[in-house]
Specification:
Elements (H helix, E strand, L loop, with lengths): L1 E5 L10 E2 L2 E6 L8 E3 L2 H4 L25 E4 L11 E4 L2 E5 H10 L4 E5 L1 E2 L11 E6 L2 E2 L10 E5 L2 E5 L10 H4 L4 E4 L5 E4 H9 L6 E5 L2 E2 L1
Parallel strand pairs: 5-9, 11-14
Antiparallel strand pairs: 1-12, 2-17, 3-15, 3-16, 4-5, 6-7, 7-10, 8-10, 12-13, 14-15
Helix pairs in contact: 2-4
InterPro entries: Imm11 (IPR012433)
Protein name: Immunity MXAN-0049 protein domain-containing protein
């Protein structure tokens, strides 16, 4: 059973932002990448049907018996992946985005090698990698935020619906620039990481949704 407990009404505000934070993720512009996991039968243990963390893991990668191999379906157009795509329960990211994440906040992310091919069998260059955001924090300043709170089976959950405005406690975040918020979906980053991605010349569509407090 689920019920919304609180959601402050939307107000008209000037576009001034306090402590910019962004929800970060892939966009779906230009369609799906069309990639399939060729050796999934060796990497995914039933009843699971998607590549993801091991049974005792919440985030990160299990020890794969072999490198995941990704190839496009023949009915899809054969294009290189963008800088950030969703693949099963992970991100598929470019080498240049990996370089930025490793430089700015290596403790917040984990990577796994994969091999990505064209339909022809030629490897796609530059390389791409599987990525997971492994840092989860409880840093939300609920009093200062505008966010819907739900209870499902007695568990408190935060919803990103309804144009949320989020404030995170910097003393809790510490040096974190990319993170997940406990009991909330999505991945978040701060303005420093966003600017580092832009400065790296990454122009392929990335979803940066500003969730900052507006006054």
């Amino acid at each position: 059973m689920s019920n919304v407990v609180s959601l402050r009404p939307k107000r008209v505000r000037a576009p001034k932002h306090i402590g910019a934070f962004f929800e970060l993720g892939p966009t779906y512009a230009n369609g799906d990448h069309g990639l399939e996991l060729e050796n999934g039968y060796k990497l995914i243990t039933p009843p699971r049907v998607m590549l993801g963390p091991g049974p005792d893991q919440k985030y990160g990668f299990p020890e794969f018996p072999e490198v995941p191999i990704l190839r496009p379906e023949k009915q899809h157009y054969d294009r290189p992946p963008k800088d950030l795509e969703q693949f099963h329960l992970y991100w598929l990211i470019s080498q240049r985005l990996k370089d930025v994440l490793e430089r700015v906040d290596p403790a917040g992310v984990s990577f796994a090698d994969c091999e990505v091919f064209h339909i022809s069998g030629k490897p796609i260059e530059p390389r791409h990698h599987l990525c997971d955001v492994v840092r989860e924090v409880d840093a939300l300043d609920e009093t200062a935020s505008k966010v819907a709170v739900r209870y499902i089976d007695g568990e408190k959950l935060y919803s990103l619906g309804g144009d949320p405005e989020l404030s995170f406690k910097r003393d809790v975040l510490g040096d974190a620039h990319i993170f997940r918020q406990k009991n909330m979906g999505g991945v978040f980053c701060d303005a420093l990481l966003k600017q580092a991605i832009v400065d790296a010349g990454i122009k392929n569509p990335l979803h940066f949704c500003d969730v900052s407090i507006r006054v």
